[in-house]
Specification:
The chain is mostly beta strands. The protein has helices at residues 10-14, 148-153; strands at 3-8, 42-46, 52-57, 63-67, 72-77, 105-106, 127-134, 137-145, 158-161, 164-170, 176-182, 185-187, 194-196, 202-205, 214-217, 222-224, 229-234, 239-243, 249-255, 259-264, 276-289, 294-303. Bound molecules: 6-O-phosphono-beta-D-glucopyranose.
């Protein structure tokens, strides 16, 4: 049996730093017979395309929503009502194709690679298995179990949790390896968008040939997006700063997401490229897990 699970917590998205998380309460709402009971501030409801989603609200005015399909965080509204995340206008909510936007979970492969680009966790239904409100800090946990679909591509048993903390556990009897990413889409005005913190990183530039990226080194203090950008940054620092061109500075902190990816498709997506940027936390070089071993990585977004 394979299990992927994740825990999403609104304080993770709103805390100013890791040591002083905002405290939020969840509102209880039991929705469907199949749903686990949830805490105050956690509402399981129907989203676009009748797909189930969890809405997290805090008394301080922030709100996040997570679709069970793909465990995709599609919205994070800060108290002034601005949504910091972006969902592409061509995103489909039909339970067939991955949702293009928000924070999708790429697992067990970031890609390109042997199986479908970005793995299968983006296009499977996750389940709400738990919610908690310890000391005012609400957490909701989602789980994904293997089925014949995942087994047909990747014949392993595993477990993962997201908070946005992703915990992958090998529950199989044989070792496996994987790569993974949080393929986060941020709302942006691309001409004013800048990412700081990547100077000195080794880069794998996928612009010319995604299958054979060009190796290089980032020499800029501030990366901007005047054209097509698709690059992996190896051994990235545990904090990046995104200025989204809309007046917001987003701090992207992480632990154990060793790498980063910047992507903007430029005119390949004429309809929307001006409105978003992907700044992704990634683990590009494969992690190997022996049976019963786990791997954990966390992402903390806050307005700087
Ligand atoms: O799968 P999506 O959401 O359409 O995103 C595709 C893009 O995802 C990025 O993470 C990759 O670096 C790009 O190479 C790729 O084109």
């Amino acid at each position: 049996m394979a299990v992927v699970s994740m825990a999403a917590s609104l304080p993770t998205f709103t805390s100013r730093n890791l040591n002083s998380p905002s405290h939020h309460r969840w509102s209880t709402l039991s929705i469907r017979a199949s749903a686990s009971s949830t805490c105050e501030g956690v509402e399981l409801t129907e989203g676009i395309g009748n797909l189930p989603k969890v809405v997290l609200t805090s008394p301080h005015g922030s709100e996040a929503e997570v679709y069970l399909f793909g465990g995709c965080v599609t919205s994070w509204k800060i108290p002034n009502g601005k949504d910091i995340l972006f969902v592409r206008p061509d995103a489909v909510f039909n339970g067939q194709k991955p949702i293009s936007g928000g924070i999708p979970h790429c697992f067990p492969q970031f890609g390109p690679g042997k199986i479908q680009q970005h793995g299968f966790a983006r296009n499977m239904n996750w389940t709400v298995v738990d919610s908690d409100n310890a000391e005012g800090k609400p957490v909701v946990t989602f789980e994904l179990k293997d089925n014949t679909y995942s087994r047909s591509m990747w014949d392993f048993s595993f477990q993962a949790f997201l908070s946005t903390e992703l915990v992958v556990t090998n529950t199989d009897k044989k070792a496996f390896s994987f790569s993974t990413a949080l393929h986060t889409y941020f709302r942006a005005s691309i001409t004013g968008t800048a990412v700081t913190g990547l100077k000195g990183c080794k880069t794998l530039n996928k612009e010319l040939d995604p299958q054979n990226p060009q190796e290089g080194t980032e020499d800029r203090d501030v990366v901007t997006f005047p054209g097509f950008v698709d690059s992996v940054y190896l051994d990235a620092p545990n904090e990046l700063l995104l200025e989204n061109g809309l007046g917001d500075k987003v701090s992207i902190k992480n632990s154990n997401w060793s790498d980063a990816v910047l992507w903007n498709p430029h005119t390949q997506m004429e309809a929307c490229y001006r409105d978003f940027v992907c700044v992704e936390n990634a683990k590009i070089n494969e992690v190997q897990l022996q049976p019963e071993q786990s791997w954990t990585a966390t992402q903390h977004l806050s307005i700087a």
